[in-house]
Amino acid sequence: MLYKLMLFLKLIVREFKAQKLRMSLTILAITWGTISITLLMAFSVGLENQMRKATSGLGKGIVISWAGQTSKVWQGLPPGRKIWYRPEDIDLIRERLTDIEQVSGEYLRWGVTMEWGRKQINKLVSGVYPEFKELRAHYAQMGGRFINKIDYDNKKRVIFLGTRVAEELFADHDPVGEIITLNGIPFTVIGVMVDKMQDSNYHGPDDNYTVIPASTFVMIFGDPYLDNIVYSVKPGVDTKDVERQMFELFGGKYRFDPDDSPALWFWDLVEQAETTAKVFLGVKIFMWFIGGMTLLIAGVGVANIMYVAIRERTREIGTKIALGARKGHIIFQFMIEALAIAFVGGTLGILISVGICRLFWFLPMEDALELLSRPTVNWPVAIVTVLTLAVIGFLAGFFPARKAASINPVEALRYE
Fold first, then answer.
1. Are residues 125 and 192 in the same domain?
2. H or E element: which one contains 329?
3. CA 16, CA 150: separation in Å to the nearest integer?
4. Residue 263 falls within a domain, yes or no?
5. Is the domain of 37 the same as that of 95?
6. Are residues 20 and 128 in the same domain?
7. Among 45, 175, 237, 324, which is disulfide-ready with 99 (CB 3.0 to 4.6 Å)?
8. From CA 203, how far away is CA 200, in angstroms rounded?
9. Is residue 73 included in any domain, yes or no?
10. 265 belongs to a structural domain
11. Residues 103 and 93: beta-carbon distance below 8 Å
12. Where among 194, 222, 255 does a domain terminate?
């Protein structure tokens, strides 16, 4: 068996040498078809992955709510009344709205003076609850941590820094454990946020502000109202149903019509993610269509080359039959040749595609272009592409070879 395999390999090498141009064109067609489809889908997958990563930078599966202003007369009260979220509303939500998984209020104060040594900057400070870490993807770099329940319960003066804030204050120095002042009040740095992609925000990039416990914030600044509420719902719960419950809950408490939509505002990132997923589904369908057309064109090219190659070798086949070669051996030889050509062309196409994708990963690009600079090879698509082109090439060579191997050797020797 091994001897026969080696013999076939020698025959294939000999045929490659005898048909250099034809074989090269066939391999080139398979390579080009593989590269075209692989790169097309690589950029599609890379764009989708980067978009998902950038979207999750704000928070995954969350809803952000702001208190608004009434627009309707309700129970004798005039329109135009401003609604304010209060700290006790967080406990009310936890108690009454069981479909909500995690919730955190948020206080905001702009222009707070921060000092460390001789450095002084003015930044936004946010007062939040411990749940804010998971809700808004505020994860700490190694060696640090986010605010916890002990910090909140004891109103500790601890602070969590955005990446840019840490760089402006401390440069290359490790800030964890250092003491900085906020409007002259000392705070201990407990952590620095990890770098993350973020394509949207509602009070500026997360790396350019700082976070302290909500209880400490109220103690220092005395804000009576929350600026917004961030929450997530339990798996399988419709966020629109929870929004309806929020209107009913706070409509009863603050006396406004539950159907008065301007009274509460919601930014539903769950709904946004679903819309984004539908958009990318459309992009995938479009890419598959373009890829299918490219594959079809490449397949036709491979089929034509293989068909012409077999037709031109009919005289050679007749000679082999006249010398005693079996039809099955002849057909098997062409099958092995077709598979070898597909393997070489497909392997070259995948390797070139991987190289091009890797090259994009090393190109220096601005943040705005980073979404387009991370193409990722979709291996199932690449393998299916190679197999499809291999099947097309095999079928294009098999039927003419079978026909040529079935004719009379004398007629085959006369074939021009």
1. yes
2. helix 327-362
3. 75
4. no
5. no
6. no
7. 237
8. 10
9. no
10. no
11. yes
12. 255
Residue 407 gets which letter from DSSP? S
239 and 350 assigned to the same domain = no
Q: Which domain holds residue 227?
A: 84-255
Share of the chain above pLDDT 70, in %: 84
**Tokens of residue 113, six digits:** 């003076």
Total domains present in the chain = 2
The string of pLDDT tens digits covering residues 180-191 is: 999 999 999 999
**84 touches 107 (CB < 8 A):** no
For residues 248 and 278, membership in a common domain is answered with no
Q: How far is CA 306 from CA 34, 238, 340, 353, 393, in A?
A: 17, 56, 13, 24, 6
Question: What's the one-letter identity of residue 414?
Answer: R
Residues 296 and 246 in one domain: no
Q: DSSP string spanning 237-304?
A: --HHHHHHHHHHHHHHHHT--TT-GGGEEEEEHHHHHHHHHHHHHHHHHHHHHHHHHHHHHHHHHHHH
Considering 195, 228, 255, which residue would you say is the last residue of a domain? Answer: 255
Q: How far apart are CA 327 and CA 24, in angstroms?
A: 26
If asked whether residues 246 and 103 sit together in one domain, one would say yes
What Rg value do the Cα atoms of the chain yield, rounded? 34
Question: Above pLDDT 90, what percent of the chain?
Answer: 46
Place of tokens 């770099």: 141
Q: Which two tokens stand for residue 349?
A: 């196409």
Question: pLDDT tens-digit profile of 79-118?
Answer: 999 999 999 999 999 999 999 999 999 999 999 999 998 8
99 and 52 in one domain? no
pLDDT, tens digit, 9 for 90 and up, residues 230-270: 999 999 999 999 999 999 999 999 999 999 999 999 999 98
Nearest to 242, CA basis, from 102, 131, 105, 99: 99
- What length does the chain have? 416
Inside any domain, residue 66: no
8-state DSSP, 206? G
* Exposure string for 246-266, b = 16+ CB within 10 A, e = fewer: bbebbbeebebbbebeebbeb
State how far the Cα of 3 lies from the Cα of 371, in Å rounded to an integer.
Answer: 53
